[in-house]
Amino acid sequence: MLVKYWMSTDVVTLTPDRSMMKASKLMKDKNISRLPIVDESGTLVGIVSDRDIKDASPSKATTLDMHELYYLLSDIKLKDIMTKNPMTISAEDTVEKAAVIMLENDFGGLPVVDENKKLVGIITDTDVFRVMTEITGVYHGGIQVCLRIPTASGSLLPVLEALRDNDARVMSILTQNVDENTPEKAIFIRLRDMEKPHYKRVKAALEKDFNVQYWVTDSVHPVV
């Protein structure tokens, strides 16, 4: 799953000389929480988040009047508050790598740049959630079964054969990554919806031969 297939390419940006007030209004109007800052050539030079703007704004307890406050805010430039040389990712990197960087650094998004540091997109935590929902197929409902199987090579094959023999249609399979010395691992298989007699037959077949942890029927549908 490469970043280039999931990132947003229509990125809202500003230049370092624009005011903090402009950035604040733009983020509110566009309902976004971060703005990549680029120079005249489109090269990424920084990033500003709603948290940066909040930290740089005067306290509500300020004694400044409205005109003084407006002047102060309009005088603050993005170059004064932006994070310079922010962490980035390449369009050819994986979404999983982007997720790790965001998770470990408590980021809500990462600018995507090319080899010349030109901004080509942005990937956010929302995009990562979208990957999860689309890859698993949960929007189409289905039944998730969790099993514990040996970590030995080929241990998934008997499960798939049992599903095939009982005419169960697989939507997605996720496998827990464990240390090679761990004797068992969890697998999560999403099956297409089926009639109750068919479901009971599949359930009985798997529970007879495998260590089934749970069955869950999802009725999730896209929000229009």
Characteristics:
single chain; 8 helices; 35% helix; 224 residues
Low-pLDDT sequence parts = none
Radius of gyration, whole Å: 25 Å
Oligomeric composition of the shown chains: single chain
- What is the count of DSSP helices, taking H or I runs of 4+ residues? 8
Share of helix among residues? Answer: 25-40%
Mean pLDDT: 91
Provide the spatial order of strands within the biggest beta sheet: 8-9-7-10
What characterizes the major β-sheet? 4 strands, antiparallel
Class of secondary structure makeup: alpha+beta
Q: End-to-end distance, in Å?
A: 26 Å
A few lines on this structure:
The chain has 224 residues and is α+β, with helices and mostly antiparallel strands. Helices cover 35% and strands 25% of the residues.
Written overview of the protein:
This protein has eight helices and ten strands. By secondary structure, it is of the alpha+beta class. The strands form three sheets. It has a four-stranded antiparallel beta sheet with strand order 8-9-7-10, covered by helices on one side. The longest helix has 14 residues.
Helix and strand topology:
Elements: H1 20-30, E1 34-38, E2 44-49, H2 50-56, H3 66-75, H4 78-81, E3 83-84, E4 89-90, H5 95-105, E5 109-113, E6 119-124, H6 125-136, E7 143-150, H7 157-165, E8 170-175, E9 184-191, H8 196-209, E10 211-217
